[in-house]
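Researcher: Before we compare anything, I want clean individual predictions. No alignment, no superposition, just each chain on its own. First chain goes here; please echo the sequence and then give the structure tokens.
Model: Echoing the first chain and its structure:
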Amino acid sequence: MIAERARGADAMPMPAESFSALDAYPLIRAGFVQRVPGIDVSVPREEALARLSGPHREILAEAGVGGMVFATAEQVHGDRVARVARSTGFPVPGADGLLTTERGVCLGIYVADCAAVFLVDRQLRGIALLHSGKKGTEQRIASAGVQALCEATGANPGDLMAQISPCIRPPFYEIDFAADIRQQLSACGVREIHDCGTCTASHPETYYSYRREGGLTGRLLAFLAICPEAAAA
């Protein structure tokens, strides 16, 4: 489902996308922030993120995670999955995946054609969020994420559910790495795997696309958190 959120009658829309498989958990807060209209992001990555930081903060607040610790990773296109807590320093150096067993910590991953992979233990003992593009998928970060989350929580792979975000897909990209991610998750023993099937490069009005926009573009923000039970009431 795609939701449009506005900051007032004359404000630009605040777009975020949700996934029914994640929305089924009352204590889970998750979303995929789309292109923010009206902001010039045809600049290098760090400047684009700076320009988007204000709208992103507002969207996170509207999603109910604005008061949480916001955990981010350096994202170097590798396979390291870091376990984080409120006291962790961010962004985590050398990491492309984040996991936590603490409620009230919001995991965040930025993408612009790569996939964000959401992992949730159905018993809510922990969550993980992974950055998996061509290189990360080749290094099997999805498999690393499943293993790390299971080790941290005591879960079995069959206890997990996975959601794959919009990402670039054929014919706009020569590799269907979303299919590879699904295969990796299945091979690990994850039985509940959801893939929205959306191609970022096919919808320039909705998503930033690194390939389509020649590298100078914004970043889509995936976020995932478990609320403390009192905060979810």
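Researcher: Okay. Second chain, same rules.
Model: Second chain and its structure:
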Amino acid sequence: MAVHDGPQAEGLIASRTGLDPGSELAALERRVIRCRRCPRLVEWRERVARERRAAFASEEYWGRPVPGFGDPDAAIYVLGLAPAAHGGNRTGRVFTGDRSGDWLYASMHRVGLASQPTSERPGDGLRLLGAFVGAAVRCAPPGNRPLPAERDNCLPYAAEELRLLPRVRVIVCLGQFAWDAAARLLAVRPRPRFGHGAEHETDGGLTMLGSFHPSQQNTFTGKLTEDMMDTVFSRARELAAS
């Protein structure tokens, strides 16, 4: 699973992010995919990649930290929790290859933030339009539950992405974990209350915008509907344009 500098790393980043390999943002994402700061997450992501799910037994899993993906001129930054074990950890692109990603990008497509409604694999033609997607934790965690120390190890990558995305005005936080991570990232005190559609404008001029996470637990039960998610992204576009 080792990733080296040079053409191999540049090719990996170009295929997973669509970024200019010579950009500062691409250089950051090359650092992300080499990260081994959290031994528990390294062991888990690589074990999942070796053992694989039966449905994907013939595929080569990514098994590394998952870089951010999207438009370097983004005004909207979407912050998720962490890659899915058989989604981003398999495909190497955030919210790609699982049902949460299908739900997310379908909504972004409906409101004009994505070129197509599906995200199956790198190289499938998906482009984000004025949006960039990252995660609070870049490795798939056991039980989809990162530890606080793992979050804190990883959040500097999101901070650096935001520094290199100077047009961002809105952070869409997918779920309570992402909302709390964004508050920590932006040093918001006291922490504002999370809810679907919750808004909080920071002293730095960024707006945190909450959404329920597009997990199957939420979408299958109707806690999160297509209209609810579309409303959040439509609001994000309004805030970004104001």
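Researcher: What stands out in the second chain?
Model: The chain has nine helices and six strands. Additionally, The longest strand covers residues 76-80.
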